[in-house]
Structures are given as C-alpha cells and as structure tokens.
Amino acid sequence: MPDIVSLGEALVEIMRRSRDVPFTVPAEFLGPYPSGAPAIFADAAARLGARPGFIGVVGSDDFGFMIADRLRMDGVDLSYFRIVEGYTTGIAFVAYSSTGSRKFIFHLRYSAASLLSPDDVDRDYIASARFLHIMGSALSVSPSSRDACYKAVRIASDSGVKISLDPNLRPELLPVEKIREICRPVLEYAYLILPSGEEATMLTGLDDPRDACDRLLSMGAGIVALKMGRMGSTIYTRGREIYVPAFKVDEVDPTGAGDTYDAGFVVGLSKGWSLERIGLYANAAGALSVTKFGPMEGCPTLNEIEDLIRRQPPPISL
What we know:
Layout: E1 4-7, E2 11-16, E3 29-35, H1 37-47, E4 52-59, H2 62-74, E5 81-84, E6 90-96, E7 102-107, H3 123-127, E8 131-135, H4 136-140, H5 143-159, E9 162-166, H6 176-187, E10 192-193, H7 197-204, H8 209-218, E11 223-227, E12 233-237, E13 240-244, H9 257-270, H10 275-289, H11 302-311
Parallel strand pairs: 1-4, 1-8, 2-6, 4-5, 8-9, 9-10, 10-11
Antiparallel strand pairs: 2-3, 6-7, 11-12, 12-13
C-alpha cells in the first residue's frame, strides 16, 4: 500500500517550442509529455523516495500507454489506475509568453480523465496511506471526478489520514467563483494547503496573500505553504512564519514546478522533518523541475536536491 495517494487527471502536454507564439498562428510544438497535476505530484514523490499511489483514467491509446509506463517506471503504484476503450487520453496545449505567463487549451471534459468516479476510490487504499493529496484541477475536470475526490477526503478524514490541498486554479476549466465553491468541502478537512499568492486571495476573497494565509489557518488548516515562484516560499502555522529563499536556476519550462514543490513538502512531512528543512527541499525540488522541458522531466531525486543545496547554501538554519 502507498504512503501518499493522489487522484485526478492524467494527460499529455504539447507545448509551443518558442515563447510569445499564440495559438492563433501555425508554429512548432514539442511533445507529447506525460502530465496532469496530480500525476506530476505522484511522479515527483516517487522520485523523492516516497511510495505514492495514483488513481486516474486514461484512454487506450499511445498517450495513455506513455503516461502509465512513465509513472510505473518511476515507482508510482497504479493499482487503481484505469485504461479505458472509447475515450481518448486528456490533452493540454500550452503556449508561453516571455513574461512567464502561460495559456492553456484543454481537452479534458470529454476525455478519459473525466471518467474518474467514486467507484475508483477504494476505502482500504486511501485509509492505509499517511497523506491524501487533492488538486483543484481534479475537482474541476468533471462532476464525477469531483465526487471521487470528495469520497477520498471523507475516507481520509475518517481514517486519520492527513489531507493536503493545492488549489491549482484553472480558469480555463471553471470560473473562479465555482472553483472556490468546490474547494470549500476539501478546505474544511485540509491539514496542509499549498497555494500561490493569487490562489490564496481567490480562495478567501482577501486582497493580501499574508492575510489570506491567516484566514486559511483560521478555517482549520495546520500549515499553509505560500508558493511565491522566484521569491521563494513562506510557511505559515499558528504563531509562526518561516520565509524560505528561492534557488537560482535557468528556467526552461515552468510547468509542473508547483506540483513538484507540493511533492517535496508532503514527502518531507511524511519523513518528520522540520518545517525549515521541508521548505528548503520543496523550494529546491520546484526549482530543479523548471530546468528541463516537460512537466515530469525535471522531477529531481533527493541526491539532486542535496547537490543544489550544497552549491547554493541557504541563509536559514535547519
């Protein structure tokens, strides 16, 4: 049985080779690359030495086979992963701008990923884990995927399994107001919340990210880890605020950095590390993930993280 479980969309990403090339003009793409936020999280956790399991659905096509092969090769348990006939594997097209922003076109709502349902969620599989990781994107793909996540959360809560939530807001899938509504049943049970500043303010309706993190703590979370990209991250608990500086790397592809950060944080919690060490390793994991093209291609190992920390010693004590 895995010690960490995630569930939701598995898909492939096909990305513009060059920045500032809109979808409205013919130009080169790269890919397909295995992707999907909950799948990236599981793959990164496996590469960091955890025993993750992933629950999801792909089509019986080459894209689906590629995703399954990659997750299995990296050590993700796929006991409740389905390959189905009659539906194609989910696809995301991504275009990048030189400002760092991204634009997505998703084929998810009518893909195999949308078929994830409560029937895919096994009680013993969830109850035996130490952490359940939920993504806002998985709540947004389809009503049945959302219900699968809610079922997993109920089982985890009843079984003493800690729940982590990355809001992972995708306005391309649902309006922000709707995403806020569907995240609420998970927020009630989440021990760890991992938002960006924009996501924290969207979830709470407050303008200041720090105030938003305090509000999330008041709603019941034990830890809020605020992801700030090139500025690093800040970890909030009741009575504590820990700023962790960023690492300097050459960015090639930012997709998947937040998911890899999540994996580093949850794996660190599962190992019982201090919050300072967890934040440092999570920052390093996220930084290394952007150094290669493709959402899973930069997922680092612990040795690679420790090598980066040796090369860039942080100004915080562990």
